[in-house]
Amino acid sequence: LSQADYSALFNGNIHKNVSNFIGDAQQFHKFTDFKYKIFSDLYNENTVKPFDFADKMIKSLAGFSELIIISSAPENLIFKILKNKNLDVYFKSIFGINKNGKRETFVKQFDKNKDFYFITDTAGDILEVKGLDIVSLAVTWGFHNEKNLLEVEPNYIVNEYHKLINLISKV
């Protein structure tokens, strides 16, 4: 599996793409069982370091809007990482692993009476919100590069965190 192949698994629902890549349902279940057993060793408050600007960005964005996390990672691990930096208090909710994809969570959480902005660093996440009345903002400092993100046509693409804060403050 090359780095490009791995990155391509995130062009859509990661769980479905990995299942299709593995092919055999039984092997896929073995893989996911193993992945979740080791996830906390690889993804925790000691191994995941937020970007240097994360504190300022999160605090600024929380001044404009309610913040919710919808992630493919386990929510308890996300919470620990945020709590370690005293950032957990800025989030209304955290939604972790949903093997059916993030779209299902969006549909359940989306309030048509409020503006909803989705900030992400993967092309697959942009595809998950296509067709919903949600503004997608792709950031280039994460998993996928600008070229990958542009291919899925987000509403906005942002290269610097202060430009993201500025954009959200105006919309």
Could you characterize the architecture of this molecule?
- Strand 3, helix 7 and strand 4 form a beta-alpha-beta unit.
- With 171 residues, the protein is α/β, with parallel strands linked by helices.
- The strands form two sheets. A three-stranded parallel sheet has the order 3-4-5, with helices on both faces. Strands 1-2 form a two-stranded parallel ribbon.
- The chain contains nine helices and five strands; from the N terminus they run H-H-H-H-E-H-E-H-E-H-E-H-E-H.
- The radius of gyration is 16 Å and the shape is globular.
Helices and strands in order:
Elements: H1 3-8, H2 14-22, H3 25-42, H4 54-62, E1 67-70, H5 75-84, E2 91-95, H6 102-109, E3 117-120, H7 123-129, E4 135-139, H8 146-151, E5 156-158, H9 161-170
Parallel strand pairs: 1-2, 3-4, 4-5
